[in-house]
Amino acid sequence: FRAITALSFAAAILLSSSAFAGTQGMLYEGYLTSAGGGPAADGSYTVTFSLYDGEKAATAFWQEANVKISVSGGVFSYALGATKPVSIGQLQSVKSLWIGVKIGAESELPRSMVHSVPFAHVAQAANGLLCTGCVSVKSIKFDDNIDLGGNSIKAKGITAVTITASTVQAQQFIGDGSKLTGITIPTGTCKAGELVNGIKADGSLSCASAAASLPKDGLDEVSNGVLKNQFVESFSMPATDKDKGIPDNTGVDLVSSINVPGLGTTEQFFRIAVDLQNSDLSTVSVTLLPPNDKKVGITLCDPCGNKNAKTLKTSYPDKSKVKTGDLSKWIGKDPKGIWNLKVKDVAFCLPQLDAVNCDVKNSRDGKLNSWSLSTQVLSNQKVQVTGDLVVTGKVLTENKEIKLGAVSDVCDASRAGVVRFKNGAFEGCNGKSWAGLGFQGFTYRWNRWTDYLRGGSSNWAMDNNSSLFGGVNPSNWSSNSTASSMSSTTELLRTLFVRNGPPLGNLQNAMVFADSRRQYNDSNVSRHVAVLFRVKNTSDKDITWPVYWYHTSYGGWSERSSIAVNGQNTYNSGSSNYYANHKSNHNLTIPKNRTSTVIFVVSAAPFDTSSYYGGNRPTQLGFYNNCLKLPTGLEFVDDLDTKPNGWDK
């Protein structure tokens, strides 16, 4: 290249964010000519810029090497210091500033002198003001006020006779404040049971209830851990749903329900655990329907496993992620209500591949082993006392002594342990039925009677009053009446069945009555024995109770032995005569999801004319072959004192 001409240099000052740290940039513009004298060809060139202290200086005090410039019509520009900043400190010490330019690998072109424009960086009037710590505050004298505009003063300490400001903000004031003026000192007191929680704008105290200032879960903190209202609650599926078969692609879902009582507010976690098996979990889906959602629900898994996987045993969402929906949305809410779990199988199973799970005969593929719902709740229903509760005076409610109410709620597992006062007696819920305190109830109620009384003024017993004999006139007990003839009115049944069997427990057999009475004839005189059971079916299907019993009857005088379930005749001896040691067995159907009344009645056997000095009439009623050990899903309850009227109750 022949020459380079500086068109302008440092006509503009390029400042970066670090300019105030002592570095600057300068704009350099030039005209590059070729060896022939014309403008250099357009394009990109590699250039090295150097600054010297003097035209003949041997070395450059600053150099920016191998930078790219773009030339158009011979003209180019470049901001010196773009890749290597120019130090103002270097410029201050230079006596005569010269610039050298080198194109590519060629020799450096003749140097050009830099005139005074760049030295505006270091004007004598501002010399040193860009340095840090080089000017002592003692050297600065003020002879008037300083107006900083909207700027601030930052200092470790300020000493002044007077500070005038509309607002003074500080983290702390040091001193006793005795000489402060214009400050309103708060006065007054809070009411009993309240605490100061702030100062109002007018200087008065702001008070709040001491109880309101406690967190809702703060019982354990204020009681040293003796009291708490945080509980981990867990609810499992009904026992009757255990091993419930999964319909095999029938279009019907397996549904299991858990009824969650009011608990309070859930917190920290909400968990669903599921345990089931199937011949191929890749065709199975599980959906949870909360109480407020009967259609969409939360899909726990779909599919619930890989091809031919057979066991699903996990919990959501801690171990497995739900497919759709969000269980965490129940945190902060009360889960009260019925939760339904639905299991769907959408493909037929093959017993050849899995004979254990695939039940083609009953259209079942696998089963639901268990499922449960658990959560930590902040209860608004109960408080746990982890130590002893010591009361030196009376326990009062609403300024009265505790009074047990005559609640009529159904006694079930959720109310086990509740005590009430009803019908003039204290009763407790044993988880199955209401019973007088001190015992669990009786397996059955029973009684025996004679329908006709001889001697003196002979007549039908007790004026033939049906209200004392189960709603049946004594004269009719000797004329075709059976267990199904009895009244459905609970009070009439309670009036007759006043004898109690053994307490509820593990009774398997029972001898209720066995006796023989000598008679001189059989006219109008008969003895009867009756037993009443209350049998609860906790499942969603009818269950058969196989009964084995000893019984007597006298068909000649229409004195029958019989069985009735909820007022419906299920057995009648008819015209048959059954003597001592006669026995038979019957399958009784106990309806699903309810408590049923089962009554057995016998009468005395026929008159034995061969007996010496008159005949004997034996009477027997007993249960054998362990038939009082009820099938799974059935249980005896003793609620005759509280059950409503009607066979459907």
Count helical runs.
4
Total of domains: 4
Report the helical percentage.
under 10%
Oligomer classification: single chain
Keywords:
single chain; 649 residues; mainly beta; Jelly Rolls; 7-stranded antiparallel sheet; 6-stranded antiparallel sheet; 4 helices; 39% strand
Describe the 3D structure:
It is a single chain. The chain is mainly β and 649 residues long. The chain has four domains: 3-126, Immunoglobulin-like (Sandwich), CATH 2.60.40; 231-379, Sandwich (Jelly Rolls); 391-436, no CATH class; 445-636. Helix content is 3%, strand content 39%. The chain contains four helices and 42 strands. Strands 28, 31, 33, 36, 37, 40 and 42 form a seven-stranded antiparallel β-sheet that branches.
Show the helix and strand layout.
Elements (H helix, E strand, L loop, with lengths): L2 E12 L8 E11 L9 E11 L8 E10 L3 E6 L5 E2 H6 L3 E7 L8 E2 L80 E6 L5 E5 L9 H4 L4 E2 L1 E7 L7 E4 L6 E7 L3 E14 L6 E6 L8 E4 L9 E6 L20 E9 L12 E2 L4 E16 L4 E2 L10 E2 L2 E2 L17 E4 L2 E5 L4 E3 L8 E6 L1 E2 L5 E2 L13 H4 L12 H7 L2 E2 L9 E10 L7 E11 L5 E9 L1 E2 L7 E4 L2 E5 L4 E2 L4 E8 L3 E10 L11 E9 L10 E3 L13
Antiparallel strand pairs: 1-2, 2-5, 2-6, 3-4, 3-7, 7-8, 9-10, 11-22, 12-21, 13-21, 14-19, 15-18, 15-21, 16-17, 16-19, 20-21, 23-24, 25-26, 26-27, 28-31, 28-33, 29-30, 32-41, 33-40, 33-42, 34-39, 34-41, 35-38, 36-37, 36-40
